[in-house]
Automatic annotation (TrEMBL):
It comes from Aegilops tauschii subsp. strangulata. Coiled coil: none annotated. Transmembrane segments: none annotated. This is Acyl-coenzyme A oxidase. The lineage of its organism: Eukaryota, Viridiplantae, Streptophyta, Embryophyta, Tracheophyta. Residues 338-493 form the Acyl-CoA oxidase C-alpha1 domain.
Length: 696
């Protein structure tokens, strides 16, 4: 008899023998154990749970224990905010709301949070970033427009004062930003430039006679564009502009000192009238986030005091002399942008929260909805169909993986803010770039899959998917276009790769590259490449080694390609020629970081039953990602054909196992009905609530 394995049972010809048919039928119990009673008939073979493989149905999936581990120390803060809004129905965002009304409601919601609920967001951001991001997630659950407006006010406008200013700026502005007396905005993007911040054209020219800077928009391309909070509510703007010092360049020409940030008042504090020299126009109705008042700003010789330069990294004295602790424009620019990573952290954090909402609605509806079934038997839940499990269960596993990844990101960000360590700062800059890009792209795709999985009812606005998709879509663009951010990750990986061969040290996140250049780049072991046992495939070491092997292979090969093409195309041309390869490298590395954090979270879980459930979910995440890129592993013989088949079958099986605890897994997100809001996503009486929505 041919050698048998659980992943493959021979060819079609072999199946024709009675023995092979018997073995195939016996193998069914390994793929999908059944809870249904045995059909009548002595010859019936009923799939049953295998003693050698524990069913997830046998796991005690305690949603409360999972919640306690997921929500952490800020659960009480979020619950308090949810209760506050539940008791204030006039602050709820209706499904249908005109843009003007939505904008005013958004500002009232934010004012209520600060002035009635007693939240002090800027103080939290400065003293406890973890709690600040938890507050952002809570308000985003109520209205994503509110979360974005909140982020503009505190992460961006307030964050620029904290991170780019000095003591005099904090003393003057901090408290009034915190209590919302000084609503503000963050004026970086221009009509002609978004990602390429170093090419911004707005100027700030120093006038030594009056001791002022003159802010100018030199052409239409330099109009500040998409500036949140500016069209209606902002009274100040942090304006990014080129600092120009007259007569200090070569031959008496003006000296361009590069991009700096300036505090520019844009409206009168008493009358709210737009100030002289400033023109503000409304960017108008958008695809989503219409509660945020985005505007366009033009400056015509607007004068501001010299003290309004946010001078942490560069200053101008009364006599016009420029000083900085950083020697070059590029270093000052890098330091300035490096201090603004909080915006990317908040987007990654909020995006995971939005993914949880979408997955919860889709999974609960899939458990509720029944369609078709065996002849003369009740209809079955659509989540019992393998195709539906294939859509939603890896996504649910990914939501858990990304939850733990964002926790790690916030921990690293908090450590950076406490220590001001340069190495940690560099690490957080790249980590936030990678996770923001990966998470927001994944969430955007997943929302559409969730909508599709809910059929026609997913198309109803009241069931949220359209609003979630439209509001979240821009997360892939602002605070750094995702494609640009992934290139930053790839660039840093190449820098670390070069450091390896120079004998330098590697930053914390990339430590595994120390071994990968030798271990992972050697030829795959032909024996382990064929191992297909479940214990091996579910071993975290195999899973993480596979992720890291892929990254190391991609890094090694793209480095060689870049070196080859630079000879004929130059640096820029070579980078562009290899760009898709570089993006794949960056995504691969980010996935390795995500898996490492998930594995660590499973190990650290103190409750044994909860740990067992999390291990199941982690295995599905890891093996699904390996299967989705199986071609890469096959091309280099890291995975033999029989092992690839075993991985595929195990992913199907694990999806089924996760389906058995899917309700507990989404309930563990602990999202109240006021956050879910979609009738089809309610924990009980979903259809009754849905019919009430349309008037029955």
């Amino acid at each position: 008899m041919a050698t048998m394995s659980r992943s493959g049972y021979g060819s079609d010809d072999e199946d024709s023998t009675p023995a092979m048919r018997r073995l195939r039928r016996l193998s069914l119990h390994l793929l999908q154990p059944s809870d249904r009673p045995a059909p009548e008939g002595a010859n019936s073979l009923v799939p049953a749970a295998c003693a050698g493989r524990r069913r997830a149905g046998g796991l005690d999936a305690d949603a409360a224990a999972l919640t306690a581990y997921l929500r952490g120390r800020h659960r009480a803060t979020q619950d308090r905010l949810y209760r506050f809004f539940v008791e204030r129905p006039e602050l709820h965002t209706p499904v249908e709301l005109p843009m003007a009304a939505h904008r005013e409601l958004c500002f009232r919601q934010m004012a209520a949070l600060v002035r009635e609920a007693g939240v002090r967001p800027l103080s939290l951001m400065a003293d406890d970033p973890d709690e600040y991001f938890a507050v952002m997630e809570a308000v985003g659950g109520l209205d994503i427009s509110l979360a974005v407006k909140f982020g503009v006010q505190y992460s961006l406008w307030g964050g620029s004062i904290i991170n780019l200013g000095t003591k005099k700026h904090r003393e003057k502005y901090f408290d009034k930003i915190d209590n919302l007396d000084y609503p503000g905005c963050f004026a970086m993007t221009e009509l002609h430039h978004g990602s390429n911040v170093q090419a911004l054209q707005t100027t700030a020219t120093f006038d030594s006679v009056t001791d002022e800077f003159i802010i100018d928009t030199p052409n239409d391309g330099a109009i500040k564009w998409w500036i949140g909070n500016s069209a209606l509510h902002g009274k100040f703007a942090t304006v990014f502009a080129r600092l120009i010092l007259p007569l200090q360049g070569k031959g008496g020409e003006p000296a361009d000192m590069g991009i700096h940030a300036f505090i520019v008042p844009i409206r009168d504090l008493e009358t709210h009238a737009v100030l002289p020299g400033i023109e503000i126009n409304d960017c108008g109705h958008k695809i989503g986030l219409n509660g945020v008042d985005n505007g366009a700003l033009r400056f015509r010789s607007v004068r501001i005091p010299r003290d309004n330069l946010l001078n942490r990294f560069g200053d101008v004295a009364r006599d016009g002399k420029y000083t900085s602790s950083l020697p070059t424009i590029n270093k000052r620019f890098a330091a300035t942008l490096g201090e603004l990573v909080g915006g990317r952290v908040s987007l990654a954090y909020s995006s995971v929260g939005i993914l949880k909402v979408a997955v919860t609605i889709a999974v609960r509806y899939a458990l509720l909805r029944q369609q078709f079934g065996p002849p003369k038997q009740p209809e079955i839940s659509v989540l019992d169909y393998q195709s539906h499990q294939h859509k939603l269960m890896p996504m649910l596993a990914s939501a858990y993986a990304l939850h733990f990844a964002r926790r790690y990101l916030v921990d690293k960000y908090s450590e950076m803010k406490k220590t001001n360590d340069e190495d940690i700062s560099a690490d957080v800059h790249v980590l936030s770039s990678g996770l923001k890009s990966y998470i927001t792209s994944y969430t955007a795709k997943s929302i559409s899959i969730c909508r599709e999985s809910c059929g026609g009812h997913g198309y109803a606005a009241v069931n949220r998917f359209g609003g979630l998709r439209n509001d979240h879509d821009i997360f892939q663009t602002f605070e750094g276009d995702n494609t640009v951010l992934l290139q930053q990750v790839a660039g840093d990986l190449l820098k670390q790769y070069q450091q390896k061969f120079k004998g330098g040290t590697l930053s914390v996140t990339w430590n595994y590259l120390r071994d990968s250049m030798s271990t992972y780049l050697s030829q795959p072991n032909p024996v382990t490449a064929r191992w297909e046992g479940e214990d091996h495939l579910r071993d975290p070491k195999f899973q993480l080694d596979a992720f890291r092997y892929r990254t190391s292979r991609l890094l090694h090969s793209v480095a060689a390609r870049l070196q080859k093409h630079m000879k004929t195309l130059g640096g820029f041309g070579a980078w562009n020629r290899c760009l898709n390869h570089l993006l794949t490298l960056a995504e691969s590395h980010v996935e390795a970081v995500i898996l490492a954090r998930f594995i660590e979270a499973v190990k650290s879980c103190p409750d044994a039953k909860t740990r067992e459930v999390l291990k199941l979910v982690c295995d599905l995440y890891a093996l699904d990602r390996i299967w989705k890129d199986i071609g890469t592993y096959r091309n280099v013989d890291y995975v033999a054909p029989n092992k690839a088949k075993a991985i595929h079958k195990l992913v199907d099986y694990l999806s089924y196992q996760v389906r058995l605890v899917a309700r507990e897994l989404v309930d563990a997100f602990d999202l109240p009905d006021e956050v879910i809001r979609a009738p089809i996503g309610m924990q009980s009486e979903a259809y009754a609530q849905y019919t009430q929505c349309v008037g029955f």
